[in-house]
Amino acid sequence: MSRYEANHPVRLAVTPGEPAGIGPELCVQSYNEFFGEIQPIYFADPDLLCERARLLGIDITLNDWSASEEFVSGKLNFFPIPLRSPCKVARLDAANAPYVMESLRSALTHCESGKLQAMVTGPVNKAVINDAGTPFSGHTEWLAEETGTRDVVMMFVSDSLKVALATTHLPLRAVPDAINQQSLTQAIQITIEELKTKFGIDEPRLLVCGLNPHAGEGGHLGTEEDEVIIPVLTKLSKTGLHIEGPVPADTAFTKHRLGTTDAVLVMYHDQGLTVVKHQGFGEAVNVTLGLPIIRTSVDHGTALDLAGSGKGDSKSLRGAIECAANLARVFHGDREMFVPEAS
Questions:
Q1: Is residue 282 very low, low, confident or very high in pLDDT (cuts 50, 70, 90)?
Q2: Which pLDDT tens digit goes with each residue over 290-301?
Q3: Are 208 and 341 contacting, i.e. CB atoms less than 8 angstroms apart?
Q4: In this structure, what DSSP letter does residue 149 have?
Q5: Cβ of 184: how many Cβ atoms within 10 Å?
Q6: Are the C-beta atoms of residues 150 and 292 closer than 8 Å to each other?
Q7: Which domains does the chain carry?
Q8: What pTM value is reported for the model?
């Protein structure tokens, strides 16, 4: 199966991320929960996976998917990416940064070719990758550059929330300058279009937050709402899009607001992620909107303090895999297969 066809299993590329972190063991802990309709392929060093399984006392059997591209249920199916240096649990090593990047590149290539239908990424350590000489501000930005995608939107989804970000990984002082009418228009249009094509929502309703306290208080607490946000929302609303805002961020996530919207667009990272992670840390899924491929990710970091302990919770990784499979089905036409609760 080179490209996805309706009613066929969905195959996904999973990158465990930083080898010294919790990613590899989350893969080992959860791989056997997927078979049949969802088929994850782990782009990793098989010896690393076996060593982490041994450390946790978990018996695993591997299948080198690259040999025949046949998925074997009950086995951990992997695509071999060799480590560049021996890996010790919880000890970061810049020598393995190229391994992390090769895992990402290979997974992306298989998704772009159509052999795999979605990409799920585990947590990486950005500092280690940068220390190794590769500029890297995050998966979202890297994937956009690698795929030649000009504009992407980061969205976090859980059982009851979908939160999109107008800006991603920026210092707080740089946020206002990054929000202009063009960039905000793109973020809104991408979010609404992806809610239609990948989440199966025919007429998405979007709630847009202000940047400043009280959404600027009529210009007394900032002018970005009057100069940028309101003009954009007014213009787009006239095209028939269902958009409300700008609303103060401190009331955007109240029950009555969320009851009349499908997603919330916030202006910067912590404005939205604080709410998402308070609601259920480790239970949300990071989805990159606007890419030519489907990409989801866990909502947590490398958790070096938990690596090797067996105490890590694989709920977010399982959710990311399930969400990616559901998005792939909707995107390729199997809208009846979509399970909203998994998104």
A1: confident
A2: 999 999 999 899
A3: no
A4: -
A5: 24
A6: no
A7: 1-149+291-343 (3.40.718.10), 151-290 (3.40.718.10)
A8: 0.91
